[in-house]
Design brief:
The complex is a heterodimer of chains A (118) and B (111).
Chain A lengths: L4 E3 L2 E4 L5 E6 L6 E8 L3 E9 L2 E4 L8 E7 L2 E6 L8 E8 L12 E2 L3 E5 L1
Parallel strand pairs in A: 2-11
Antiparallel strand pairs in A: 1-3, 3-8, 4-5, 4-9, 5-6, 7-8, 9-10, 9-11
Chain B lengths: L3 E3 L4 E4 L4 E7 L6 E7 L6 E6 L3 E5 L2 E6 L4 E6 L8 E8 L7 E2 L3 E6 L1
Classes of the chains: A mainly beta (118), B mainly beta (111).
Chain lengths: 118, 111
């Protein structure tokens, strides 16, 4: 399996521009997570989906952030308009929850998108 | 919000020594505990998971869990320079598949 795929790997944009980050989870995984990582705040969960349905978006910092999962193999995280404080590494992760193991499955992380907003 | 706290380090140990990484968590109902390793510029990767009180060993790694004290630790025996990385403690709660991460402890193994 190719693992979790994210694009782009690097993004440099100017303040006020729209940014769209993309993620393809591992085939067969039913959970998808979006995280943001900064030196100051560490790894923060932004939102997660189960079977394409958003379950918890309490980590989304503000209305400028939105996420969608139109199907089991694709998700987007959009920032509009972007601000310099959004500069961070954004990770997508996926996992599979088996009925007998409950919530113990490993989350597999993608390579991340390094975003710089000037 | 479930809080997970780790010493940020940096923690430096000589090659061959035991590295001890600690983590505390605030939510008593947390049931699953994970240690992720993250090399600089890379994504986190799972190295250990533990669900029951006591010790769990996997090669040079031992995870220890004490739910009464809300404490989980990771021991790395015979530390190698390749173990130099940031180690993230992660916790989830009952009936939840989302993880809460600590800010990580940066480990440097000195040859």
């Amino acid at each position: 399996d190719a693992g979790v795929i994210q694009s782009p790997r690097h993004e440099v944009t100017e303040m006020g521009q729209e940014v769209t980050l993309r993620c393809k989870p591992i085939s067969g995984h039913d959970y998808l997570f979006w995280y943001r990582q900064t030196m100051m705040r560490g790894l923060e969960l932004l939102i997660y989906f189960n079977n394409n349905v958003p379950i918890d978006d309490s980590g989304m910092p503000e209305d400028r952030f939105s996420a969608k999962m139109p199907n089991a193999s694709f998700s987007t995280l959009k920032i509009q308009p972007s601000e310099p404080r959004d500069s961070a590494v954004y990770f997508c992760a996926s996992s599979f929850t088996s009925s007998d193991r409950g919530f113990r499955e490993t989350q597999y992380f993608g390579p991340g998108t390094r975003l710089l907003v000037l | 919000q479930k809080e997970v706290e780790q010493n940020s380090g940096p923690l430096s140990v000589p090659e061959g020594a035991i590295a001890s990484l600690n983590c505390t968590y605030s939510d008593r109902v947390s049931q699953s505990f994970f240690w992720y390793r993250q090399y600089s510029g890379k994504s986190p990767e799972l190295i250990m998971s533990i669900y029951s009180n006591g010790d769990k060993e996997d090669g040079r790694f031992t995870a220890q869990l004490n739910k009464a004290s809300q404490y989980v630790s990771l021991l790395i025996r015979d530390s190698q320079p390749s173990d130099s990385a940031t180690y993230l403690c992660a916790v989830n709660g009952a009936g939840a598949n989302n993880l809460f991460f600590g800010t990580g402890t940066r480990l440097t193994v000195i040859p």
